[in-house]
Amino acid sequence: MQTKKVTLPKLNNLSPTLESTALKLMEEAGELAQAIGKLRGMSGEASRLDEKQVMQVISRELLDVAQTAVSMMFVLEEQYGVDIDALHQEHVEKLKRKGYIVDTQAAGGTTREIKAAGEK
Ligand SMILES: [Mg+2]
Predict the structure, then answer these.
(1) Beta-bridge mates of residue 110
(2) β partners of residue 2
(3) How many domains does the chain have?
(4) What is the CA(65)–ligand 1 centre distance, in A?
(5) Residues with Cβ within 5 Å of ion ligand 1?
(6) Structural domain range at position 69
(7) How does DSSP assign the chain, residue by residue?
(8) Domain of 97: which CATH number?
(9) Which residues contact 83 (CB under 8 A, 6 or more apart)?
């Protein structure tokens, strides 16, 4: 199975909560949607950026979403005792069961793996 790891740090200059990370996740998701829609003129806006620049902005916003998701994982682990690693395995099994991942060697499938910095 082809994979891509994105290791993101635990932010150590904030005191995140479940609620603050959830709200931030929605905020960042909104910024991603704005980049995809507005910067590409999907509602008729004139875009002053070329496609390469827009894709850079979209990618940066996507990383903000991923960073916030990882921050929320740390909150769930540290404040609520959730075993994210175990749930991650369940998640991958669910994807296989639903047919989103098939025999990856035969199909050449790709996954993107996001891990928190320091995670095994
Ligand atoms: Mg952002």
Answers:
(1) 2
(2) 110
(3) 1
(4) 7
(5) 28, 31, 61, 64
(6) 2-116
(7) -EEEEEEEPPPSS----HHHHHHHHHHHHHHHHHHHHGGGTTTSPPP-S-HHHHHHHHHHHHHHHHHHHHHHHHHHHHHH---HHHHHHHHHHHHHHTTSS--HHHHT-EEEEEEETT--
(8) 1.10.287
(9) 77
What pLDDT is stored for residue 32 in this prediction? 97
pLDDT score recorded for residue 53 = 93
- Residue 7 sits at φ, ψ, to 5 deg, of -95, 125
Per-residue pLDDT of the chain (120 residues; tens, 9 = 90+): 777 899 999 999 999 999 999 999 999 999 999 999 988 888 787 878 889 999 999 999 999 999 999 999 999 999 999 999 999 999 999 999 999 998 756 555 566 667 666 655
CA of 71 to the centre of ligand 1 (A): 14
